[in-house]
Amino acid sequence: MPSGSMLTDLFSEPWSHRGSYMAVSELTRGRPDPWDCPPGRNVESGIYLHDVSGGRFWKWNGVFRFEAPETGGASEHVRFRSATPALLNLSCGGGTIELTWDGPDTIRIRGKGNGLRLRVTSTDELGSVLAFPRDDRSWRFHMGPAPHYLVECLTGSVQVAAQRARTIEHSHGSESEQPVIDIVPGPGDSFEVALVQYQSETKASREHRPFDTCVREVENDFTQWLTTQPPAPKEYSASAARAVYVMWASIVKPRAVLRRPAMLMSKNWMHAVWSWDHCFNAIGLSTVDPGLSWDQYMLPFDMQGPTGALPDVVHDGGVMFGFVKPPVHGWTLARLVRAGVPTVEQLSEVYPQLCRWTTWYLDYRDDNRDGLCEYFHACDSGLDNASCFDMGLPATGPDLAAYLILQMHTLADVAAKLGVESDAFTWRKRAQSMLAELIDRLWDGERFLVENAGTGRVNE
What we know:
21 strands
């Protein structure tokens, strides 16, 4: 594994582990706040543990803020020092803090020279953020409908100031009313704790592996992932390793409605999968991990709607069908086939699903029945703020027609591979018909046009 600090900061590159729904990142004053913070609450700058599960999608997802214990009535900042995939180094007052992973659900924290304060920053409209002691060395933190946390003290001691009753007022109260966990050093002026995320119930562990053993395991896991990636020129090796880390750290394990491991768009705030971004992830993984590549491709197909639509967004907490995304899936499948990713059995599985996705566009996104499909909203295009939509919607765009033409050609090729020649003929004929309409209607001899499907107006 590369030596030195791989992450330059925690704002743009959250520290996480493959499979985990936890990430450590920093919120800094003067930078845009990407989260929908609760009304009336000011989110302080600092380093936070974030929950990237679907229940917190598009919401404030900070669970704990890392602070130095209060000294003389003032709380010092915890600061970022360096990070590799296996080890996050922070400074805390005059002391140091190290974090590593003991599997995707447990963060191990050890410190020396100072204690550590974890301030609960989770919000919950049900007023369910509560803390309960499990025994004399572990506390359970109930976060309402979101995943919960167990704090286990291995060395030193833990002191918790928290309410024990449900009050709606508390969930919208000031930070001073939120639970506070003080981790106090023991002999040798050091401490160590395990922070465990769980969904419904967990038991306190009586034995934990040594911290350094956990570090080595993460190092080995990331090194194994790194060695599967294409080699990069020496001058780009550091950037390549960071890019590989982002891919590795962005993966979450199957959970709840997610049936497969999923590469999230980010573990900062875009912690979900959109139904075209997953295609680019699948292509990127196609030459290094065909199984994971196919999992990325199939994620939205697992949740395909009854009429054939693919959801706009998928995450472990559910799906969103308010928008759709462009049908780039045929183009993607052709590339995956060329890379040797899907087996014949997998092609047989996805073929009817890709047919239904294509016919959904033909049946439900051609309102004026002119042979060319339309975007009903700019977000359907994936180009949310494109100026071509300023003339109004629904919009008939050349990109959408091109995607569908390529998708129908792919369906023809797959049908031929599967021995369904009549389907292959039909898809090629449909593709040729749409191509003729595209050139006739949206090509002016010099450029392609976007047309308002209701008024016939074209973009200038």
